[in-house]
Amino acid sequence: MAAPSLVDAAHHELLAKVAAMYYERELTQSQIAVALDLSRVKVYRLLKEARETQVVRILIDYPLKRASELEERLARRFGLRQARALQSGAGDAGLLLRQTAQLAARYLEEALTAGATMSICFGSATYEVISAIRSDFQADVTVVQATGSLPQALKEYDSSALTRQLAQKLGGQAQYLSSPLLADNAEAAAIIRRQAVVGQTLAQVRRADIALVGIGNLDPATSGFVRAGVAGPDQLRAYRDCGAAGDMAWQIFDSAGQLFPCELNERIIGVTLDDLRAVPQTIAVAVGGDKALAIHGALASGAIDVLVTDEQTAAHVLARPAASHQACHAEARR
With a threshold of 0.85, does the pTM exceed it? Predict the structure, then answer.
């Protein structure tokens, strides 16, 4: 995605201005039209575009019921501090993710305390959690970008922009990781990590009080690796054939929660599974029965303290037998 032009930026500002007048100041479309010297039809179209482009995100505060028995079983089996499982029926996957994200946001609002440091690994689930945090919730926290940035990021993977937005939303401070997400090779990655400005941020990531992550299943059709241009479908299929189970914080792991031996892991700049294990409270958000293996592996890694999911996914995870680590083929490193 190319950088926005001045015209694009001006139009975005107009969308935001019209939306703020309508949703925050509660002016009518006719009043906005007069104030901005626009036609009422134009105002209507701008408001519609603002919703379609997510300049405006409407949060419906659903009543969130929890499956307490499944929560207790998850916490007991995997040694979690807490588990949250949304009571849910079969339905729209997008709606299920948004409702589960609201459940995670309510937990996060309870967990955040003044002066805390929170590190963020961005993806679809964490993007929805950030969107679900109530607009009137304030916390004097430092939000740290836990993984590097992509040059052509999708909105849910635009790490620096979302770090800034979350810090502004919470009324806190933002600290950025001035690095690409993916280095050209392992040697280049090591050099980048040794740079002072990068090392300082990574050190703060390791000292975070709370980390927020999602869990991916390496499905080429939906994986963030493919959507963000980090890896190709064939590469992910090869990793899965060799025993990779999922990814968390852009780190690929096997079914026993061990770091998968592949060159992609060596090139990623950001928080590691070892770093997450040291964080007092790492919160993972994931839904979908197709992620059961990945979630099970992530829980086996010992890097998660709190899991937020839905009841059907929780049941799939609990139905899986305990995993034993299997060495991956040497081909996976290529």
Answer: no
